[in-house]
Amino acid sequence: MYEAWFSKPVSVTTGIGGDIRNLLNAQQAVDLLGGNWRDAGSQKHRSALRACRQAINGGISADVAREVFVEAAREAHILVE
């Protein structure tokens, strides 16, 4: 098992203050997805969690998981674009 590093960080806003956090790998994405996710349980949230876990286990590339995570973050309105 490894972190599955993204080729480019994903910037998201977190917390009440809207702090910007740059996620560098699938493990960091899983940690965020498993926490207080705004749209927890949505199809995109579940897909992102599954994809990031697969990337950590070497089943898919980190950048495929990154793209799925970006879509979930966009749906949750936390993606910094």
What is the tally of beta strands? 2
Q: Which strand order do you get reading across the main beta sheet?
A: 1-2
Structural class of the helices, strands and pairings? alpha+beta
Helical segment count? 3
Low-pLDDT regions: none
Q: Please state the CA-atom Rg, rounded to the nearest Å.
A: 11 Å
Gap from first CA to last CA: 30 Å
Strand content: 15-25%
Rounded average pLDDT = 94
Percent of residues in helices comes to: 40-55%
Shape verdict: globular
Please give a structural write-up:
A hairpin with a 4-residue loop joins strand 1 (5-14) and strand 2. The protein is globular. It has one domain (5-75). 44% of the residues lie in helices and 21% in strands. It has three helices and two strands. Strands 1-2 form a two-stranded antiparallel sheet. The chain has helices at 26-33, 43-56, 62-75; strands at 5-14, 19-25. Helix 1 (26-33) packs antiparallel against helix 2 (43-56) and helix 2 (43-56) runs antiparallel to helix 3 (62-75). The protein is of the alpha+beta class and 81 residues long.
Key terms for this structure?
81 residues, alpha+beta, two-stranded antiparallel ribbon, DUF982 domain-containing protein, DUF982
Helix-strand blueprint:
Elements: E1 5-14, E2 19-25, H1 26-33, H2 43-56, H3 62-75
Antiparallel strand pairs: 1-2
Helix pairs in contact: 1-2, 2-3
Describe the structure in brief.
The protein is 44% helix and 21% strand. It contains three helices and two strands, in the order E-E-H-H-H.
